[in-house]
Amino acid sequence: NAGVTQTPKFRVLKTGQSMTLLCAQDMNHEYMYWYRQDPGMGLRLIHYSVGEGTTAKGEVPDGYNVSRLKKQNFLLGLESAAPSQTSVYFCASSYSLGLISSYEQYFGPGTRLTVT
Amino acid sequence: AQSVTQPDIHITVSEGASLELRCNYSYGATPYLFWYVQSPGQGLQLLLKYFSGDTLVQGIKGFEAEFKRSQSSFNLRKPSVHWSDAAEYFCAVGATDDKIIFGKGTRLHILP
User: Fold this and answer.
1) Cis check: omega of the bond before A39, within 30 degrees of 0
2) B83-89: which pairs have CB atoms within 8 A and are 24 or more residues apart?
3) Contact A107 B94 (CB under 8 A)
C-alpha cells in the first residue's frame, strides 16, 4: 500500500514551458486535492475533485488545469509556466463518510518545481 | 468565512520541556479539527483529529489537543518534547464544499 505518490519529485522548467504533475492514490479515496506551499503562506488549495470525472477550483486556480479521468489519479497541468509558479506542490486524498468528505487528508511527498 | 489562525510563527523549547502550540478557528457549526506535522522535505502527516465527543483527543507521537468551543481553540500539547519533534505544525479546520482550511503553520525548534 503506497498511499499517495507524486511524480516527479523535482522539476526545473523555463518560463513558458508546460508540464503535468501526476498524483496517484491506492486507497480508493473519493476526494483528491492539489496544494501549493510557499514560505510563510501555508498550504493553498489550487484545485480539487470530489470524484472521478469532477473537478473544482480552489483558492489559487489561475494558471493551472486539472483532470480526474480515473478515480486513483489526479493530474495537475501548467500550460505556460511562470516564475510565480515556483513552489512545492502537494497532492492529498481523503475518504468519504457517506455523502460527505471525512476531511481527513493523506498527503503525498511533494514535487519541488522551479521555473526560471 | 472559515479561517484558522496560528499566532506563533516560530516557537523554541528545550528538549524535555512541555509544549503548547496555539490554534484558533472561525467556523459557524461544530468543526472538524486537525493537526498535521511536516518534517523538512516531507509531506504532511496527520497527528490527530477532532470530530465530536471527548474534547481531549490523543494522537500519535505522544501529542494531544483540546477542543474548547468557548474559546474557538484547538491547542496542541506534548508533556515532554524530543529533538525529533522539530518540524512545522499545521492546524486545520474542515470547511464547506469538502475542503479544509490550513493555518500558516508554526515552526518548532528544539534546544538540546
Assistant:
1) no
2) B83/B15, B83/B110, B83/B112, B85/B19, B85/B61, B85/B110, B86/B110, B87/B37, B87/B38, B87/B39, B87/B40, B88/B37, B88/B38, B89/B6, B89/B21, B89/B35, B89/B36, B89/B37, B89/B38, B89/B47
3) no
CA A77-A19-A52 angle, to 5 degrees, is 35
What's residue A58's pLDDT? 94
Q: What mean pLDDT is predicted for residues B12-37? A: 93
Residue reference for cell 493523506: A106
Residue with C-alpha cell 472521478?
Answer: A52
Cβ–Cβ under 8 Å, residues A34 and A48: yes
Chain B closest-CA separation from residue A105 CA (Å): 8
User: Locate cell 503553520: which residue?
Assistant: B105
| Per-residue pLDDT tens digits for B87-111 | 999 999 987 778 889 999 999 999 9
How is residue B9 written as a grid cell? 510563527
Which residue is associated with the grid cell 511533494?
A110
Contact A90 B44 (CB under 8 A): yes
Chain A residues whose C-beta is within 8 A of a chain B C-beta are 4, 31, 33, 40-43, 45, 48, 50, 56, 58, 90, 92, 94, 100-101, 103-110
Please, is A18 exposed, middle or buried when counting C-beta atoms within 10 Å of its C-beta (0-12, 13-18, 19+)? exposed
